[in-house]
Design brief:
By secondary structure, this protein is mainly alpha-helical. It has three helices and three strands; from the N terminus they run αβββαα. The protein is rod-shaped, with a radius of gyration of 29 Å.
Amino acid sequence: MNDLPPDLPRLRTLETWLTLQLQQVRHAITTAEQREAERQRGIQARPPAPDWLLEHGLNRDAPPIGVHVGGCHMAGNRSRGIDRAAALRALADGIPACTHCRPDSELGWLEG
């Protein structure tokens, strides 16, 4: 079954339209490839996740409210990365350990 017009002028018009459509598709492919390459570069350039997190209170004068293992899903947006020594110090200062990720167990922290 052939749905193409039989005459040359309409075939040429169709050819022109299809050429323009193909150019648009190729441009869209190039744009999508560039976006994906940028996304991959962003993933590769991302700094590694911290091993430990200290979650801060609602304002800058509030004391920290919890210690988390890096990547804990319960850590809030007000968390920042800390090193092992700072995490141990925070636990020793009485800042509670997250009950989900248990940084105290990961650190080998024994109270008292």
